[in-house]
Amino acid sequence: MQPGSEILAAEKLYAGVPFSYSESWFKYVVYDPSWDAATFNIHDAAVAEALNPSNIRTWPDNLFGFQSRHGKMIVYHGGQDNQITSFNTERFYNFFSRGMQATSNELDEFFRFFRVPGMFHCNSGPGGWVFGQGGGASAAGVPFESANNVLAAMVKWIENNTAVEDIVGTKFVNDTVELGIDFRHRHCK
Fold first, then answer.
1. Entry pTM
2. Rounded distance, CA 39 to CA 18, Å?
3. Which partner from 64, 79, 108, 164 sits 20 to 30 angstroms from 184, CA to CA?
4. Is the distance from CB of 80 to CB of 10 less than 8 angstroms?
5. Whole-number pLDDT of residue 4
């Protein structure tokens, strides 16, 4: 886990409480409701990987089909994520790059990865975390422009073949749009 993630992770992850999505996945998809998360080990990960129901694997080693259809993907991860370490997304990116046999510049043609320091799991946190994700009041506080909004960035990339090099995240005072902007931070790929 990254420094800062302990702010929220201490209540669950660091206290031995499993991530609820993972626990449910193993209980209701991989095994059965009697499965106990306290028994998790590498064997369970291998069973889930082999099962791969509906090809849901979250760590594909390539997306050649997606790329060949001119698909575009923007991935971001909060540096203070309290549920899934942001190191995991960096590991995936490197694994994916090897599987695609592609350099970062080659991946950039269809796959962009942004690290967002100071963002918890998907939103909130002490950093400039608002860039249009998730909708809601905070997303309404940033203009629908590719420089400030991840959806607008995706639309521009798909419709005009113009990918963003960075996205500006906004931190509102007390995470309240009406109180104004505390600061902005440029997140680079």
1. 0.85
2. 11
3. 108
4. no
5. 76
